[in-house]
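Researcher: I'd like a structural prediction for the single chain below. Treat it as a standalone chain; there are no partners to consider.
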Amino acid sequence: MQQLTQLVQYPVRWIGGWFHFLLLVLALVAVGGGLLWERQRHTPVPPGAQNIQSTINAGVAQTSFRVAESVADVRSFYRQVMPQRGWQYCGTQGTPRCSNMIALVGGADQQTDVYRKPGDTSYRGSTVEIWPIQNPGGQVFVTIFETQPH
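Model: Treating it as a single chain, here is the predicted structure.
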């Protein structure tokens, strides 16, 4: 018991007393909570995703990655996880009033799944738009666009 007391008191003395020690613990908890919150608020990527890259351009957060699964598997993954995060499937970019982005051409608008918050009846809120395409090598390249409200 005495060793445990000394083990705790050493960092307390080193940092300058209990007040500073408690501030440090509080700061570490706040940073950990902030990182967890940041992770939860962005769209998840499937297990096994590779070459993950994220950027923010003109109010749109864009995340791109590759997976060794099929396009159908990627769509199935997002149809399962997005409702758990408070999003509902709206349709594709080709569905009227679903997308906040300029429609892609060449049929790509039909391949881009769009998710909105359930209460967004004005269709002006944020969207998550997921575009999985298969490359000639058989890998699936996924781009996720997280848009801001209009």
